[in-house]
Amino acid sequence: MSQHWRKSHQENSLSEVFASIPIPKGGGFWRNLRAFIGPGFMVAVGYMDPGNWATDLAGGAQFGYTLLSVILISSLFAILLQHLALKLGVATGRDLAQACGDSFSKPVAYFLWIICELAIAACDLAEVIGSALALHLLFNIPILAGILITILDVFLILYFQNRGFRVLESIVMALLAVITLCFGYEMWVAEPVVSQVLHGLVPSTSIIMDEHQLYVAIGILGATVMPHNLYLHSSIVQTRAFEQNDIDRTKAIKYATWDSTISLSFAFFINASILILAAAAFHWNGRKDVADIQDAFLLLDPVMGTKWASILFAVALLASGQNATVTGTLAGQIVMEGFIDLKLKPYLRRLITRLIAIVPAFFVTWLWGESHINELLILSQVILSMQLSFAVIPLVWFTSDAKRMGKFVNPTWMTWFAWSVSAIILSLNCYLLGQIFFA
Fold first, then answer.
1. 406 within a domain of the structure (yes/no)
2. Are 346 and 107 spatial neighbours (Cβ–Cβ below 8 Å)?
């Protein structure tokens, strides 16, 4: 393996902040999995952030269960791509941003960095809007005030970041448990028809033929497969203190993949639940116009005949927004250091990202009113989808290169499958651009 790529574990940027987490010598499957579990959940929360809520609600209310297949396919894409990301980090000791910085000229690296920063800003925009909406729904705080309150996230995340990486992982998993319990209840009271749900998991040609379905479907793709999560996962998987030899790296890849797959399965359940809830509560009750989080909150209790559905919906939304904030903070640090070797104080880095998100959210709400918040939320997810190819293509290229990966290079079937996924993503994005600008 090239010495240029075989960097030591200690050179990873996150190790400057977090001590490496020990893993057991030997031990059984569950003991090893317990040591490696965590980074996958950190990544998975980005796949269920408030941006997903807007696209999933829109898809379920307007088209019933049809777009469930898009969530399933997107989740399978995510499992593959996150596996490649963690494998890159473990096998080379370099995260995706560092790998791009090593391999590309400075102009290309700067371009990719800017593109990735736009994706992080779009994701943070969804978190700002989602958290502000949740505060408004739960405590009747004006959305403009809620948007400004989200600045406090900066200091909250920094406090927990200084307590260590395991503390952050524990908080994320606790909030994920809250979201899962909330939607478990929602599914229980919604009583969806199982046969219709299963039918929705089968892809339909109408998704491609109908530009409205396609727009929401690509928004779901952008919300489900998050470009900055590929950079994040390739870095935080290195917080485990495995030895730098082939045997230990093979073990690390194995258990990190289990961690990632289990975590993304939870994300699939949450995303599917949001769409199923919207379909069962609104689409099949003649309320196909409900694609707004606020409308969904107001109508859930009357439609489902319970007083808890709306409250738990908003609680899950708030937990979702706070969870995704953690990953956005870490991803921003990783890409800035990896692409251009620029190090900022964590609070300054976080503050800049949050202000970039707050400004458009604040002015859209102020100038055009709260009714346009949901459109901004869906647009943020389409923007994420547009950035995806710029992260996926380098990732597939690097992990398919034997000189870089050594014995951990992708097998031929995985290489072809990964390039096919990249082609699908790129084709859908090009088609959507054509619909937007030339239709």
1. yes
2. no
